[in-house]
Amino acid sequence: MPRPRIPVPTARAVVDCAVYVDGNRLPGRFTHTEALAEVRSRGTGFVWIGLHDPDETQMADIASTFDLHPLAVEDAVKAHQRPKLERYDDTLFLVLRTVSYVPHEMDSVSEIVETGDIMVFTGPDFAVTVRHGEHTGLAGVRRDLEERSDQLSHGPCAVLHAVADHVVDSYLQVATLVENDIDEMEEAVFTPRNHVTIESIYQLKREVVELRRAVNPLAAPLQLLAHKPDLPVPKEIRRYMRDVADHHVTVAERISDFDESLSELVSAALAKISLQQNSDMRKISAWVAIAAVPTMIAGIYGMNFDHMPELKWTYGYGMVLLLIATVCTGLFVTFRRNNWL
């Protein structure tokens, strides 16, 4: 029988929980229930709680406190969701894919781009961020946002914008590093007498495909947040979201360029391999032609006929060797002059 699962307290999944009033963080430590009660007793402000890899029990506790929709909660527990934006009455649910660059060797088959997830719930008086994966932490986002009380005073949607802006900025950083890899690969492919395995190009192309799958689907949710006025998003935040959407378009275009560049690199590498194979075949054919001369002569004199006048000639052996050497040397010089050898 499987062992019963021991429930883990919700506090184990909470990275930070704070109450913000007029853009300023209230002093003290709060649980998620205490924080929401504080906000609703004041009638102003909002709660921002950050979670990392919550399980179903922990997420159910958060959902019951903030009245989150069960479908959105189910998506928040499961990682590797497709970027999307959903609305449940006054609550927005945004899913973002995070990416991180993994240092590697050019000939390595290890992972180059690592992905994760960030989900953001925003309501009238709360913002809940759920992060899956060990990269793209939000501690710096919270710290930077707390230093801009005018931005934070716009409410939970300010958190939504800050997280989206942080994720898209990470896309730009990863795209720059991947571009350096592609430039290095191009230099290696087009350098004469430099051996580049086609597997390393395919590996880089596969990681670019994964990067595109993480980045491109976010375009539609960002456009909705930036241009759809019936969403519960303040007008000023929509203006900021338009800037994030513009940055996202830039990243998507760069990734598309990466894909085209790698496709051209694959074609160039295959052409280089084909040229090398043709050169090898010319060398093999030239050596086979040279080796055919002594083989043919030795075959003739190895037939053991009784009436072969050359067999009783005093200088026959030496002349045959001289003939073989002369013909083979002539063939070698001819092939070398024609760049076959």
From TrEMBL:
Spans through the membrane: 284-303, 315-335
Membrane topology: Multi-pass membrane protein
Keyword Membrane recorded: yes
Catalyzed reactions per annotation: Mg(2+)(in) = Mg(2+)(out)
Principal localisation: membrane
Entry GO terms, CC: plasma membrane
Cited function: Mediates influx of magnesium ions. Alternates between open and closed states. Activated by low cytoplasmic Mg(2+) levels. Inactive when cytoplasmic Mg(2+) levels are high.
Record-stated family: Belongs to the CorA metal ion transporter (MIT) (TC 1.A.35) family.
Protein name: Magnesium transporter
